[in-house]
Structure formats: structure tokens, C-alpha cells
Amino acid sequence: MGGAPANFACHARALGAEAQVVSRVGADGAGVRLLDELTRLGLEISGISIDPTHPTGSVGVTITHDGQPVFTIEPDVAWDHIISDILMENLFKRADAVCFGTLAQRSATSAKSTRGLVALTGPDALRVFAVNLRQNHYSTATVAASMELANVLKVNEDELPRIAGMLGISGNVRECLNQLVSGFGLRLIAYTRGAAGSILYDGTEWSEHPGLAVEVRVTIGAGDSFTAAVTIGLLNRWPIARISKVASEVAAYVCSSTGAVPHLPESILERFEIEAVTTRPIFRSL
């Protein structure tokens, strides 16, 4: 099981939140297995609809010598046909945070549903845009529309120069981050740079983390775990230095493990005093 939305939701659940995936699967064996696995991991699945025509999405992944994934994403699958309904609308109206990306907006149907649902969240809700530029499955219009909706941005070192070019932004890393925060009124931007660590910026304060030395097995899911930890920290109103430390520790552990959603050890949870979120659920839109 994989995919950024499910990875994010599973990590958010592991870090103490109520979490839910909003998506669509096919009426096939893969869809049944996905729903069973999400249920086993403690996630509510009522936001996942069944598509009678299109198959459950699948992605081929090969791993490079340094543990980096290369994806082959199947076209025209169930999650390309997410249709908003009353249940989904109510979920988003109640959400404290929603995280969404670019990949599931590659089709007009799912793009319309995603943007419409995110727009329903309350004025205090976190709208986390986790950029996931994959092959040719994105456009400048999608990035621009997502930035207008977001109040939190998660972007990595490969994505930043690409979205900066799309949005007419230039300068060094900090200059680009500052322009994104000020230009789109973001509450926070989280910039990750692999083994070199990360930078968090809230428009006033910078928190730079050098990264943690680990033996990398597979990096799939590490960025999603980082995003989940940042979201939990923001919901708990932690200082950004603490958020940076927690997110880095969680992501480093995922990199050192196999699979996108490994079980987080108690040592991590206890060390950073991660507590259950007692607010309303977090929801992850595809």
C-alpha cells in the first residue's frame, strides 16, 4: 500500500490524530485489500468511494542505488474520478486540517472535487499543500490554484525551483521561501532537502535543521511523514523549532526503514512527547 495521501494519513494517525483518506478505489481485489489495510491501521474509510468502471490506482516503483524512487503511474484509474458528495463535504467542513497535492488533480474531475472540498474548510483550518510533482502529471494552473487555496506549503529541494519558475519567483532558497510566504499569505512553509535537512519559516522565524545521519533504505513515505509531523505540531501550537526537530526525527526513521508507513517506535513518540490530538479529525484529500 502506498501513495502520498494514505502515507500522510497513516503517519498522522500514528502521531495521535484521527485521520481519514478521501479517495476512490475500483471494485476489484486491489481496492478491497486497500480498504482492509487502512481499516487495520485504524483509519476511517467512509470517505473512500467505489468506482464500478475504473481500476484501483497502481504505481510501479524502482529504487535507485541511493534509495530514491522512480515512479511509473498508471493513467485513468479510480482516483482520477473522485466525485464530491454530501458526506465528503461534511468531512471537510469539520476538519482541523486537510492536506492535498498536485498528482490527484491531474484529471479535471478530481481537480474540481479536490479544490471544491478544500475550499469548504473553516477559516482556522490548516490547508496543507504538499507539492508532489510527478512526471507530466501537473501544470502551472494546478500549482497556482493550489497555492491560492493553501495556508501551509510543503515543498522539497527538487520542487522549489520548478514551482518558483511557474509562479514567477526568483532568488536564492530563502528569498524564494520568503516570497512564497508573503505572496500567498502562508502560515508556514516547510522546505526539505534530503540528507541536508530542512527549513521551516512562518514569515517571522526561521528554523533550520541539519538533518540526521541514518542508513537510508528507501525514502518513499519520508516526505509524507515529515508533512504529517509538521501538521500535528501546528495543530498543537508547538514552536517551529520543536516542530522541525520532531518532523526530522520521524522522517529519518522512515528513511531507515522499509515500506512507506513503518511502525514508529515508542522511543520516538516518548522522546518528543507526541500526544494524541483531541481536536476534530484531520482529513487527507487526494
Distinctive features:
286 residues, alpha/beta, UDP-N-acetylmuramoyl-L-alanine:D-glutamate ligase, 9-stranded mixed sheet, two-stranded antiparallel sheet
Class of secondary structure makeup:
alpha/beta
Shape: globular
Beta-strand percentage range: 15-25%
Number of helices: 10
Helix content: 25-40%
Oligomer: single chain
What is the rounded distance between the termini? 15 Å
Series of H and E elements: HEHEEEHEHEHEHHEEEHHHE
Overall CATH class: Alpha Beta
Please outline what is shown here.
By secondary structure, the chain is an alpha/beta fold.
Note down, in words, how this protein is organized.
The chain has 10 helices and 11 strands. It starts with a helix and ends with a strand. It is of the alpha/beta class. It has a single domain, classed as 3-Layer(aba) Sandwich (UDP-N-acetylmuramoyl-L-alanine:D-glutamate ligase). Helix 2 links the parallel strand 1 and strand 2. About 2% of the residues have low confidence. The chain is globular and about 50 Å long. The relative contact order is 0.18. The strands form 2 sheets. Strands 2-1-11-5-6-7-8-9-10 form a 9-stranded mixed β-sheet, sandwiched between helices. A two-stranded antiparallel ribbon has the order 3-4.
